[in-house]
Amino acid sequence: MNNLFKAANQYVAESDWKDLSLIKFCLCAMGIIIGASLAPKHKQTVVKAAAVVFAVTYVPLMTKFFRIIFRKNYE
User: What is the pTM of this model?
Assistant: First the structure.
């Protein structure tokens, strides 16, 4: 498992924003496919859980992004 994390870190280090956006689109599409295949009685629970995960992950990501922007010394 440690090697998997090292490989993932190396992949990110060698990637640019375009590569990472492709990963995000791929994961979004996978999520849509999974969501479309859920039984109707479970969809509301999954949507609520996804909303919580989105909120918990979006805030730190945007905090870091705005910190970089306000630093104004990025290249």
Answer: 0.67
